[in-house]
Design brief:
single chain, about 140 residues, mainly alpha, 4 helices, globular
């Protein structure tokens, strides 16, 4: 009989850190792309906070999703811890650039990363069996 594979602390830590890094890379790429679009099309400056908020919300959701994708249980917890890491780095970056940090923004980011973890755990991963046939 095959026993279910247990995840160790190192595997979970690598998964959460990797998810947070991917979320921040997505956010960085989105900010650079939006800056290019704002420059090319001369869009109003009033749209910048909206675009940055939407990009950070998508990145937080992606963080939770990737942290929980492929695990068997407690996806919300993995999404939460990836969100905590994402928010801590966000706190450091925002306080370095600005003098204020909005607590509601941090709460929204955490909720979205938990929701991403819930969605991510329900996402089925495709893999090969021993015979090389894909599982349904």
């Amino acid at each position: 009989m095959n026993q279910p594979e247990k995840e160790g602390v190192q595997t979970v830590s690598k998964r959460i850190i990797g998810a947070a890094v991917v979320g921040w890379l997505f956010l960085l790429a989105g900010v650079l792309l939006s800056a290019f679009v704002f420059h090319i099309f001369s869009l109003p400056e009033g749209a910048i906070p909206w675009v940055s908020a939407i990009l950070s919300y998508i990145a937080a959701f992606l963080c939770g999703f990737l942290a929980a994708k492929g695990v068997k249980r407690k996806g919300f917890l993995k999404g939460f811890w990836a969100g905590v890491l994402f928010v801590v780095i966000d706190l450091i970056v925002v306080l370095t650039v600005q003098a204020q940090f909005r607590i509601w923004n941090a709460i929204i980011l955490l909720v979205l990363s938990v929701f991403g973890g819930i969605v991510g755990i329900n996402k089925k991963t495709k893999g090969k069996t021993k015979k090389g046939i894909l599982r349904p």
